[in-house]
Amino acid sequence: MLSRLTRSQAVAVCALPVVALLATAVFAPLPFSLAQPGLTADVLGKHQGTPVITVSGAPTRTTSGQLRMVTIVATGPDARVSLGDVFDNWFRPDRAVMPRDAVYPSGNSVKEIEKHNAEQMQQSQDAATQAALKYLHLSADKVKVRLKLADVGGPSAGLLFTLGIIDKLDGDGSGGDLTGGRDIAGTGTIDAAGKVGAVGGVALKTQAARRDGATVFLVPKAECADARSELPKGLRLVPVTTLNGAVDALRALEKGKGPVPSC
């Protein structure tokens, strides 16, 4: 058949399958999620009208400054992401293209994922309370902490929850605020022993933090390189690996004395 066509006709006929494949690739769903900077919330204050941290069984302090937990917003687990979407977002500093399995557990339904995220948040809150009370040498039998942050899931607010509890109960330990009156943001998981873990998405989280006024950002040390990659002007990175190290760094910032680690 091709021998009876002109050269231009033959090229056109051969090109049709290629064009069809390219069109399919552009519009076919791909296993990616698109992410961008999300909300931030001051754990020392209120979120949606409700105090984030409520303590009973021990006196609390009036605090100044802010401790902001930060989030990213990603397309839903059932969202269709095409090649065109990937190209549109790949080179934007305020967007990220991430493997869907890195954002959501593979093979789970939307309801299962929401349940998983809620369970992770609860575990994070429990670990934060244990780590804070252990740091302050307070008994969980006497001091009760309630943490509430609506519409946020996952474990990445653990470090900020812990610091918020400490600031509410003890400040810097000598009458001052742990924040030093600054707007401080950060991210990181926490376990009951006070170990800080990596979370992912830090390059987007630093942008959310600076957008909402933070000047200092606590980042898991293992994620320093990612945090530096799109670091907004005016935001200082402070790497941490443990709760003790995070408190020491904040005290050094507050008093202007002692070393403050940097990425």
UniProtKB/TrEMBL annotation:
Database matches in Pfam families: Lon_C (PF05362)
GO BP, sorted A to Z: proteolysis
Signal peptide range: none
Record-annotated Lon proteolytic domain positions: 153-236
Domain of life according to the entry: Bacteria
InterPro entries: Lon_proteolytic, Ribosomal_Su5_D2-typ_SF, Ribsml_uS5_D2-typ_fold_subgr
GO molecular function: ATP-dependent peptidase activity; serine-type endopeptidase activity
Name this protein carries in UniProt: Lon proteolytic domain-containing protein
Organism the protein comes from: Streptomyces collinus (strain DSM 40733 / Tue 365)
